């Protein structure tokens, strides 16, 4: 068994920066969990605390059910691969791969056998006698991964291992990482800010934002049923339209009043009742770009009218910015704690109480444009009036705090 658990883990760096806040996370034996989030959200900090490279300020890291905060990195049976997997430059590939086993004082013949077997699995068996400087970036990263897993660690931590590679190599190595870790059944935590890597590799994805766990679920749950507006926006290949609406009601269902236009969520939609809990309040409505396409449908409440402002050719379709005269929503980041000074002028060791209270997603409003998908076969021009179909069952509804108004099932 090789499980990892974080119980209310926080990290405050000595300068007072709260990088991770009260994080609860359980990674099951053999699971592949991806930590996903924008740059600076604390992903690497989480990984480094699990590896024992960074002290835990508060809370407990458990490895195989045992508290591990006080264990040295070497006592944790964990292997880690970084963005630029560092190799010993004066060692050959063979010596680099063999090194962890030599340290563990494995039998000489067994080491030879394992090195050859693993190098074949990683497609680097032709490079065994070369020095790292003569390898391509992809080959070097394969050697780094091989060196990390040759000891068969119980936990494998990967920190953006593909980010320095070109697109073709990333795809190739991503597929190999997926099949290799699953074949070996190694519990893996993988850090990335690339949603494609997260969706393709993960058993489950943990979305981090400003050091706080924003969402946790399978790739399908995170993509189709995001718990927050931030997750919905981060996971879309194109920007998510977020519009501000006031909740009203009529005989047919809940009316979403966008100012100059209205959308209808019929009573038959299970989200109509939870929406009504926000009666006469503002909610944010998430509309994916691919769900906003031209239509002739005249049914009221099922479309938005606007005018094309800008067009971008995408090959199979156009992406258009459409001015529908409605208000879109954006988020401002949470306020971050500042380092504080003591009267003596030294930094004092900060505590969680020093951190400013986390302010939930604050919506700021601006008048802006909707992004829509237009079929490439038609002639679109700037200023063309356009009617965009809106399927209410495809809409996502978020309260002012950015959380879904309807229950999210995980
Ligand atoms: N030693 C440190 N002292 C102070 N602040 C730090 C330290 N290390 C990291 N930070 C800050 O903590 C925050 C989280 O950093 P971390 O490296 O964990 O983020 P990340 O999500 O992995 O980002 P990236 O994807 O850019 O690597 C960042 O704002 C970073 O500047």
From TrEMBL:
Cross-referenced SMART domains: AAA (SM00382)
Record Gene3D superfamilies: 2.40.50.100, P-loop containing nucleotide triphosphate hydrolases (3.40.50.300)
Q: PROSITE patterns of this UniProt entry?
A: ABC_TRANSPORTER_1, ABC_TRANSPORTER_2
What are the residue boundaries of the ABC transporter domain, all occurrences included? Answer: 4-235
* Segments for region (Disordered): 332-352
* Keyword terms of this UniProt record: ATP-binding, Nucleotide-binding, Transport
Pfam families in UniProt:
ABC_tran
Keyword hit for Transport:
yes
What is the recorded name of this protein? ABC transporter domain-containing protein
The record lists the lineage as:
Bacteria, Bacillati, Actinomycetota, Actinomycetes, Streptosporangiales
